[in-house]
Amino acid sequence: MVNNFTYKLLRITIFVLLSYTLILPCLATIPRKLALVQPQPLILKYHNGPLLKGNLTVNLIWYGKFSPIQRSIIVDFITSLSSKNVETSKPSVSSWWEIIGRYRGGPCSITLGKQVFDEGYSLGKILTSSKLVVLSSRLAHKGAINVVLTSDDVASEDFCMNTCGSHGYNYAGRHKKVRVPYAWVGNPGKQCPGQCAWPFHQPMFGPQLPPLVAPNGDVGVDGMVINLATVLAGAVTNPFNSGYFQGPAEGALEAVSACTGIFGSGSFPGFPGKVLIDPYTKASFNAYGLYGRKYLLPAIWDPKTFSCKTLL
Questions:
Q1: How far apart are CA 39 and CA 36, in angstroms?
Q2: C-alpha to C-alpha distance for 204 and 181, rounded to whole angstroms
Q3: Those residues with Cβ within 8 angstroms of residue 259's Cβ, 6 or more apart along the chain or in another chain
Q4: pTM higher than 0.70 for the full model?
Q5: The predicted structure's pLDDT at residue 176
Q6: What is the mean pLDDT of residues 231-252?
Q7: End-to-end Cα distance, the chain
């Protein structure tokens, strides 16, 4: 039932490096006309299923220990997604989210809902997929996405091995017939920053370029924002495994995971692309949020241009 997204950055990087090693010695013999061949556009097929649209509430289930500052970083991000009536600088978090409105489902406005705090690790510090479903069900109701956020001392199934977060759905209502989407994101600060907090930490493999400075000073939580943005976009555009995706339904490429590793124009494996730099903190970002927050957000596949759309 759980529709995990798998980050492809490390595999792509290794593939590209090997490809360059094999191809570069032969470039002098390649006819110029081959360089003019355009790459095929990236297509996420729409599978005719329902999408989330209209007014959507995001409830947060905090599992484990988070500081007030860490919580505020994520809460401010959620609040910034649909802040059209509040003046913000450009490029903004809300303008990033507006790209989702280009999908068949239309605009989707996000409102922060309820928050649950489980600092006592009621289900232990090792969570299976089924336990994540149980946690997400604590606030399950129609018209909401329940997001489970696990602290950096909680190990979740497949976390750091082949996923940085996931989304899926379970059933609610009197007769358990209402499908309610949920999502999960873990804090990778201590467990796998090279996999799930890149580009704020050097990757485990591939080009070892200097990491970017996290915009809110927290490698783990700023990495969580990137992964949260990824699963929220996936949950809205492919909530029930029948929306927009490429490949098999399980582990499919979705609205953001199809654009892994791209944060600005000119990106390539190991290099996130053009970003803004705070003159005082030297932090890297590409979107302004509310209350002076800055965030680095991944590219989204644009169904109008069939390409990965960035803010810069």
A1: 9
A2: 32
A3: 298, 299, 300, 301, 308
A4: yes
A5: 74
A6: 93
A7: 36
